[in-house]
Design brief:
The chain is α+β, with helices and mostly antiparallel strands and 202 residues long. The chain is built from four helices and ten strands, in the order H-H-E-E-E-H-E-E-E-E-H-E-E-E. It has two domains: 67 residues; 114 residues, 2,3-Dihydroxybiphenyl 1,2-Dioxygenase, domain 1, CATH 3.10.180.
């Protein structure tokens, strides 16, 4: 829960409490016709108006900055990564110009890079000490003719069958399934020519 959401729910709770107090005060004012109670009642009513304005304003503001325009046909969609069939699993910048690419994104987004152990052609883009942004993959010398590109990797539970299925649907298999450190991977181009990869965890 972020700070804005916390404030939102706090406002809702305050609204409920002040509404109850206002109703109780209203009952007492009617019974006693006391001027001091009238002043208190007026204050509570003003507070309730402020709370409602804050709540509505927060909702409108966060809907705008959180991309709630992705509400389609009454359904709200969220971008998701994970290990479900077809989920976006990883993203790499596959490059023939490792040093200049690293400098570009490090300057543009203030990302840093770290190199995994026992890897001579892979680095990770990171932000801070916890957030991974993606990979920086240096193409080997025998693939220098390939242009640099961002490659998305989709998760699958059966890489052999899914690669074959993609081929039958018109994709071009650039690299058949091969073993990597923690599973198997294949590299393809969809019918429109866009590169993507499939990954199955072992």
């Amino acid at each position: 829960m972020d700070i804005i959401e916390f404030i939102c729910w706090s406002c809702v709770i305050i609204f409920i409490i002040t509404s109850i107090i206002t109703l109780l005060a209203l009952v007492k004012v009617i019974k006693l016709a006391n001027e001091s109670y009238l002043r208190k009642l007026f204050s509570f009513l003003i507070l309730e108006v402020v709370v409602v304005i804050l709540f509505v304003g927060k909702t409108a503001f966060t809907d705008k900055i959180e991309g709630k325009h992705d509400n389609l046909n009454g359904n709200e969609y969220h971008f998701k990564t994970g290990k479900e069939e077809g989920s976006l699993y990883w993203i790499d910048n596959v490059t023939t110009k490792n040093d200049s690419t690293e400098l570009f994104y490090s300057t543009l987004f203030k990302w840093e890079t770290i190199t995994p152990k026992n890897s001579d052609n892979l680095k990770y883009f990171v932000e801070g000490t916890e957030e991974l942004k993606g990979g920086l993959y240096d193409l080997k010398d025998n693939l220098r003719q390939v242009k640099s590109y961002w490659r998305v990797t989709f998760y699958t539970n059966d890489i052999i069958n899914k690669t074959n299925e993609a081929k039958e649907l018109g994709a071009k298999v650039e690299v058949t399934p091969f073993k990597v450190k923690n599973g198997k991977m294949s590299i393809l181009r969809d019918p429109g020519g866009a590169y993507f990869a499939l990954f199955e965890e072992k």
